[in-house]
Amino acid sequence: MQTVDCIACSPVFRRPLSKVEGVLEVKELPITNKIVVVFDEAKLERERLREEISRIAEKAGLGGKIIFAR
């Protein structure tokens, strides 16, 4: 199990990420404008998750505004 934090408009991400196989939980932290995505690395690679987050962000008009932790 790994987590990925990204800073952006968190409500945009909850529903689409919840549908991605391997995503276990999406936690919104609205005060800090972050989301924490808990995922199973056996089912979903970190890079694939980053691509999915970037795709969702682009579709929502947030392209180029995502900051990934580590």
Describe the structure.
The protein has helices at residues 14-18, 46-59; strands spanning 2-7, 23-29, 34-39, 67-68. The two termini are 16 Å apart. The mean pLDDT is 85. The chain is globular. Helices cover 27% and strands 30% of the residues. With 70 residues, it is an alpha+beta fold.
**What integer is the average pLDDT?**
85
Rg calculated over all Cα atoms? 11 Å
Question: Per DSSP, what share of the residues sits in E-state strands of 2 or more residues?
Answer: 25-35%
Strand neighbour order, sheet with most strands: 2-3-1-4
Q: What structural category do the secondary elements indicate?
A: alpha+beta
Our measurement of the CA-to-CA distance between the termini, rounded to an integer number of angstroms, reads 16 Å
> How much helix is in the residues?
25-40%
Low-confidence stretches: none
Largest beta sheet, briefly? 4 strands, antiparallel
Element string (H = helix, E = strand): EHEEHE
Coarse morphology: globular
Number of helices: 2
Quick take:
The protein has helices at 14-18, 46-59; strands spanning 2-7, 23-29, 34-39, 67-68.
List the helices and strands and how they pair.
Elements: E1 2-7, H1 14-18, E2 23-29, E3 34-39, H2 46-59, E4 67-68
Antiparallel strand pairs: 1-3, 1-4, 2-3
Can you tag this structure with a few keywords?
single chain, 70 residues, alpha+beta, 4-stranded antiparallel sheet, 2 helices, 4 strands
